[in-house]
Design brief:
By secondary structure, this protein is an alpha+beta fold. Helix content is 43%, strand content 17%. It has one domain: Glutaredoxin, CATH 3.40.30.10.
């Protein structure tokens, strides 16, 4: 059976929008994603080999997560996503539940999905999909800022949202337009980055296979 592709699922989402969205609304979305790709400071993203200083995250079920606790038994895999109601995130995270989480559990690695959204609102996505991995708040985008993966909606996107009575800072509970670009970061037990994939275009995200390969490499597990 062919391996499920996250990027095909996201392409299907975009195709549905092509069929159903108002052309002006679609243009704002496409232009925003294109501009983020063009403006991305990739040198400012985490790089393989970087050392990661300690950090704190808040699991939506109330557990305090630190880098040391996340790597206690194996590598930590952080999956940054936008917020609980993000349509693409509600495709990506269930994909990772199906295709990534079981392999990481078998390898002793810890999977944590991370968003700046406040825990009392972020918990919805974990409950809705019954995730068996951590879902955690990066309070005030502290770690996302260190990783250089934050962006703010452009003027057209902000104006369209306000015209619809929406402000992303109200949705997330952060009070700001800042959101993280989707990203996957693998950190080994020495606090060293072993894999990075940052996606300025939120409809393009890391597939499961290279993440699993990076964790195996960090553990020196032979490839099969």
């Amino acid at each position: 059976m062919a391996q499920e592709s996250l990027n095909q699922l996201l392409a299907d989402l975009h195709a549905e929008r092509l069929r159903t969205w108002d052309p002006a609304q679609l243009k704002i979305n496409v232009d925003q994603r294109r501009s983020l790709v063009e403006a991305a400071d990739r040198a400012g993203f985490p790089q393989v080999g970087d050392s990661v200083a300690g950090f704190n995250l808040e699991e939506v079920d109330g557990t305090a997560l630190t880098l040391d606790t996340l790597v206690a038994d194996g590598p930590a895999v952080l999956i940054y996503f936008r917020y609980a109601g993000c349509p693409a995130c509600n495709i990506a995270l269930p994909y990772y539940q199906r295709n990534l989480a079981p392999a990481l559990k078998a390898l002793g690695a810890t999977l944590t999905a991370v968003s700046p959204q406040v825990p009392e609102r972020l918990v919805d996505i974990k409950r809705r999909h019954d995730f068996d991995f951590n879902v955690a708040t990066d309070r005030d985008n502290a770690l996302g800022r260190r990783f250089g993966i934050l962006f703010m909606a452009d003027a057209a996107s902000q104006a369209a949202a306000r015209a619809n009575g929406s402000f992303i800072g109200d949705v997330t509970g952060t009070g700001t337009w800042e959101l993280p670009m989707p990203a996957v970061v693998v950190i080994d037990q020495d606090h060293t980055v072993r894999f990075v994939d940052v996606s300025p275009d939120w409809l393009v995200r890391a597939e499961a296979e290279p993440v699993i390969a990076a964790v195996k490499a960090a553990l020196a597990v032979p490839a099969r």
